[in-house]
């Protein structure tokens, strides 16, 4: 396979992936999910509590069997080739569970043995990984005594023990302090950039997802609402709910401008807010507005689109669903 082709390869792919729970299959946790994640991407999976993020991840790593549909991870079928998937992936579950009466080193030894890693490689890797996640001084501490942040970082070390090409991280920073969370994000970026690891993570922090993810999937009630870069998601919302502008005009009374703009094609609403005019418009109405103000004899001193951060975009997508 040539390099370009390999780069564009989908390393995670699902087709109509569905999971139902309950005696009568009455709970649809994941509903006909079609997703693809490219090799080397950091993909963020976001959605309200109970949206189906963890259930999706569990199906992708072979911990839960789909009710219908299919999926592939690293080229392996998520139902028939679970062992291959275990070898190719690393997982940080939420909550992460370890053998709490064992030390960090002993825990990692245990997981390394599951992967048949030879002793010399294993012992070096354990030390390297604990250093990578900043736990070098806790090598011989029992994990039972670890704080929430230490547990998350240790969980990442554990997920990396088999040098996986794909990492599944379920809420990797929830419950950790800001410094620890930043360290985790920097590590995730580093793994992706320097090692080419594909990362599939879930998070409730939109700022975090905006910072580290190449693309984002938004899920609610089991259904994928949107997928794309932050800009693509923003455009989707702009198309749906319109664009908000702040406008300031000189040489004309505000009321006169507002009257003139009301009823203009593409203008949905006009309000006065904190000394400026707030407009909600369709896409592509900007030029017409500028022209209209000019023809009324006004001079525009400010005409800015209100930039939506991912938090706003997310809320709008969920609201509109
Ligand atoms: N083992 C189970 N039995 C029955 N219902 C389940 C089971 N696991 C998950 N569910 C249901 O499936 C839905 C999706 O849950 P899931 O844990 O995947 O959501 P999530 O997006 O990870 O939420 P959170 O952000 O709270 O972690 C929920 O309605 C949940 O109650
Ligand atoms: Mg979850």
Automatic annotation (TrEMBL):
Protein name per Swiss-Prot or TrEMBL:
ABC-type multidrug transport system, ATPase component
Q: List keywords of the entry alphabetically.
A: ATP-binding, Nucleotide-binding, Transport
ABC transporter domain residues = 12-246
The answer, when asked if Nucleotide-binding is one of the entry's keywords, is: yes
- InterPro entries, A to Z: AAA+_ATPase, ABC_transporter-like_ATP-bd, P-loop_NTPase
* Family, as annotated: Belongs to the ABC transporter superfamily.
Species source reads Candidatus Methanoperedens nitratireducens
**Domain of life where this protein originates:** Archaea
Q: Name one Pfam family in it.
A: ABC_tran
Molecular function GO terms recorded: ATP binding; ATP hydrolysis activity
